[in-house]
Fold this protein.
Amino acid sequence: MDGTLKPYRSYRQYTDAEIKSEQDEYFANDFTKEAVPGLFKDRDDITRWIKDSRLELLDMNELQNLKNSDVPEILSYSTKSKRLAVSVELMKRYGKDYMRLLQGFKMLEKLPPPLVIRDKNNGLWLMAGNSRMMVATALGYNLPVKVAKYSQEIKTEGFKMKKSQLLDIAKRLVKMHGLRSKIKIEKSNNKADYDWVSDTITIDPYADSLKDFVESVIHECDHAKMRKKLGANGYEEAYTRAGSMMVDKGKDFYWDNPFETQAEKYAEKNVKKYIKKLNF
């Protein structure tokens, strides 16, 4: 480690119920199975890995490049308060019990280590434990993990698709929503952005997966639908008013903005439906 995170030393073994849940993170999770096909033959393989593998600490570079995780985003913020605020907001969106987890870290509760997959090129994929790792990182801890070695390369669809293919997918999704929004595929610090003045959706091409890309597009489509309903000026006024109300309550203008919460919930609820409609 480079000294910015302190190792979290309070951990425990997985219970049988927790192991069963983590087995589902592979065998009942299509996106993980597609990312690392053939890594585990059966559920017993996962049980042996969880029980017998040694603990490791990832270094800062590895944490910043951890796929299928929000940890890189948390590390992008410079202050502890901002990291923690973003972690809590993300867990709210995912329906996680953030209060219990925060209390657990406060009491140095023993936690099961997250599960990580390392491929032949040292690429890393988080299979389980995103909430634990987010909060640990936000609080300044480096949570020990259990690492499974994968003899092939982790498959992340977003990196393998051409810009023209991603543009086509985004245009199809926009059309499915009855919109005429313009689309840009450009590298960005954000996964996606919406310019309500020009009605333009900008999507970062370097998504972790097809699911990640589609979810980003339909999130922005929800904004575009509200802009279509209210008009550009009406949308800007309503969005600004909603964000200002959050600030008055001591919350964040963007992260707690009802427009963002609504768009995120819409995307999470409908992403699989639209992937199916795309016939992938």
User: Anything to note?
Assistant: The first helix runs from residue 16 to 27. The first strand starts at residue 6 and ends at 7. The two ends are 41 Å apart (CA to CA). The CA atoms of residues 119 and 150 lie 4 Å apart.
